[in-house]
Amino acid sequence: MGRTLAILACAIAMGGPATIEANSILLATVSNDIHPYSNTLVEAWTMRDLLQYSVQNENGYFRARLFEDSQIDVRVNAAPITITESISAADDPDFALVAGFLTDGFSFGDDTFQDILVLRTLGGEDLLDVLVPRISEYDLFGYTVDRIDRHLTFSMESPGQDLNGDGIWTDFHIGGVYEFWGSPIPEPATLLLLALGSVALLRRRA
What we know:
The radius of gyration is 21 Å and the shape is elongated. The relative contact order is 0.27. It is mostly beta strands. It has one domain (2-205). It has 2 helices and 13 strands. The strands form 3 sheets. Strands 2, 3, 8, 11, 12 and 13 form a 6-stranded antiparallel β-sheet that branches. Strands 6-5-1-9-10 form a 5-stranded mixed β-sheet, with helices on one face. Strand 9 and strand 10 form a beta hairpin. It has helices spanning 95-102, 188-205; strands at 2-8, 25-34, 37-38, 44-48, 50-57, 60-66, 71-75, 81-88, 116-118, 121-123, 129-130, 143-157, 170-184.
């Protein structure tokens, strides 16, 4: 069995400011800042960025993708373009799958794989910079993921670093952060106390 979470930095998306739910907290982030280059002269480039989670097991292979429909044209030597976008279960049916894998607490054996690729950084779920107390060493087990925000900046310069002395190098700058927002799942004892409190309140009102 294997699975892969990929945040592919080959694209970006236009979107409005994220709406923060009242009870959501920032669970984890994944970020990077890189400067890939090409030895060709580029005037404009259409970039896209998507988050992909792939699962492979005895039943076959499937993948869930988020942010896959967004793209933007970046022009050479123009001002950097920064985007803020948010996605939740209401926006994409694949969100529930990705959120489930991010919170299941599972890590697979030596004969399987599980990778995150975010802005050209490759690793497992341990790439998540977890900002809340960990229940699982692998992911966000014990929490629900309500939405994923991303704040990305893209730009191009040409000529950029002229490594070959030919004056036609194009530098791409890709930087940003993915934020995973959600909330802790109450423990059974806490749920029991809440239930007893509700019963007591109803009795008082009666």
